[in-house]
Each structure stands twice: as structure tokens, then as C-alpha cells.
């Protein structure tokens, strides 16, 4: 038999650098957008990580108009203010 050197690939975490440097929400310029499919055509979209100096009311109004949907704000202790669409 021949000796074959088998190498297993290590796990790769694309967000490791961001998680190591940023432990608080809103301190970096990252915006997290999550789309979750509910049932049928319905889905839930969350936007978090926007800077505090932005006008959330204007952003929400523009998103509602562009995406033809309803939206609201949710205040979270860890993540800050979140836009739900």
C-alpha cells in the first residue's frame, strides 16, 4: 500500500474578524439584513446595525414605499433599534 497524505480542510468562519473586533452593535459600518420566508408569499425582513444618527423614520418610509410593504421599529437591549418589514 502507498502512504497517502490526507488533509482535512479546517472550518472557515467568514465573520471571525468582524466578531473579534466588534462586540457591540452599531460600532462598525456593518448593516445586517435578514430575510425569513414565512408561509406562501409572506416573509419577514429585519434590518439592524444602522448608525444612530440616521433618521429611522425616513429610512422606514422609503423602504415601505420601495418594497410595497408595512414596517415598524423594535427596540432590543443588545442589538439596538431594528426595522421590521
Summary of the model, kept short:
This protein has about 80 residues and is of the alpha+beta class.
Account of the 3D structure:
This protein is of the alpha+beta class. The protein has one domain (about 25-85): Translation Initiation Factor Eif1, CATH 3.30.780. It has 2 helices and 4 strands. It has helices at about 15-20, 55-65; strands at about 30-35, 45-50, 70-75, 80-85. The chain has a 4-stranded antiparallel beta sheet with strand order 1-2-4-3, with no helix packed on it. The radius of gyration is 19 Å and the shape is elongated. It starts with 15 loop residues before the first helix and ends with a strand.
CATH superfamily caption: SUI1-like domain
Beta strands, count: 4
Number of helices: 2
Overall mean pLDDT: 78
Q: Which range best describes the helical content: under 10%, 10-25%, 25-40%, 40-55%, 55-70% or over 70%?
A: 10-25%
Radius of gyration: 19 Å
Proportion of β residues? 25-35%
Order of helices and strands: HEEHEE
SS-based structural class?
alpha+beta
Q: State the CATH class.
A: Alpha Beta
Strand line-up in the sheet with most strands: 1-2-4-3
**What's the story with the biggest beta sheet?**
4 strands, antiparallel
**What is the rounded distance between the termini?**
61 Å
Question: Which architecture would the CATH scheme give at its second level?
Answer: 2-Layer Sandwich
Amino acid at each position: 500500500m502507498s502512504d497517502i497524505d490526507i488533509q482535512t480542510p479546517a472550518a472557515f468562519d467568514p465573520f471571525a474578524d468582524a466578531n473579534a473586533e466588534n462586540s457591540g452593535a452599531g460600532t462598525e459600518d456593518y448593516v445586517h439584513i435578514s430575510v425569513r420566508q414565512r408561509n406562501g408569499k409572506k416573509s419577514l425582513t429585519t434590518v439592524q446595525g444602522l448608525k444612530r444618527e440616521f433618521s429611522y423614520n425616513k429610512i422606514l418610509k422609503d423602504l415601505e414605499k420601495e418594497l410595497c410593504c408595512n414596517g415598524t421599529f423594535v427596540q432590543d437591549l443588545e442589538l439596538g433599534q431594528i426595522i421590521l418589514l
